[in-house]
Amino acid sequence: MKPTFIPFARPDYTEAEAQAVADAVRGGWTTSGPRVAEFESKFASYVGAKHALAVSSCTAGLHLALSALGVGPGDEVITTPLTFCATVNAILQTGATPVLVDVGEDLNVCPQEIKTALTRRTKAILPVHIGGLPCDMDAIWDLARRHRLYVVEDAAHAAGAGVSSNRIGAGPSDAVAFSFYATKNLSTGEGGMVTTGDQELAERMRILALHGISRDAWKRRNDQDSWFYEVVAEGYKYNLSDILAALGIVQLSRLEKMNRRRREIAARYTEIFSGIPGIEPAPEIAGRTHAWQLYILRLRPEILGVSRSEFIRAMRAQGVECSVHFIPIPLHPYYADKLEFRHPLTRALTEYERIVSLPLYSGLTDAEVEQVIAAVQETASVHAG
Ligand SMILES: *Cc1c(COP(=O)(O)O)cnc(C)c1O
Known about the structure:
The chain is an alpha/beta fold. Helices cover 40% and strands 13% of the residues.
């Protein structure tokens, strides 16, 4: 087996995706149109949501949902420090204040910590399903019901994930935002989807996503006065192109299969890593379907004798690119300056020092998976020895 360079991520596209994009281009309607409508309805039925709105990104979807719910200046939104900057930016851009609380053993935001952070100003909870492992949603929904809070989920990693027998996106959260960024389980290069069970919210989001215009160009195309439209709100420009929706429709039809391959690889990693002292395999929780967007292992540097950075460099030297998810929000200079951190974030900051994300995607061959495993074994044994 010849070792090759294994990049951290690689999208899984077939000839069918290329054909669908070509057809969309040849069809001549390239902004939001019939393919966006089809993608939305297929995505809604896949996750089991009443409504789905295709958007230009998950970040746009989060901002759109919070704005449409009326979250704004003076409000607090509780979220996790162990997330991508987009989560916190979406909150800040509404004018609201992000309130960070610590994560639990599963690296997801801890419901008990959310409870201690509630104030008169708390308006919403924004859980992030890190790596595709669902948060403890029953506890979060319970808190939200008791305290009359909105729940907006950052499901960037969670296309195909689930809690009990429901898929993420099915509710009862107010809104759930998915990402179709290049590295995600379902990828259109750039793009996203927001699902909701609330028809009024769905309509408000649809209007706000396209300049605040009441009826989009596709719906107006056969009107006698197709030129006429009305602006009824101060909106954004968050709609998705039909070219990307064409790609998304094919990806969605392949999602279960692609996720099965991710699960298979994750199971192989866990099988091997459970037997390596100094390495903790990625967490799994009974009753929660993992989407395996990321495989986040945790090192025990005291056993391994290497730091996380050294581990990642040693992996790269063996042709395996790793990453870290995520650099905690308080460690970025902008947020360090701008935000007030009222609650201890000890676990997030400690776990950060020892988390490593391995390559995990449906296009990985068995040989590549074994190369990743061999590199981990080699790195662990050389230093521990
Ligand atoms: C990728 C990601 C996002 C942003 O998704 P975009 O579609 O690129 O806007 C948001 N949150 C998390 C946790 C992510 O990993």
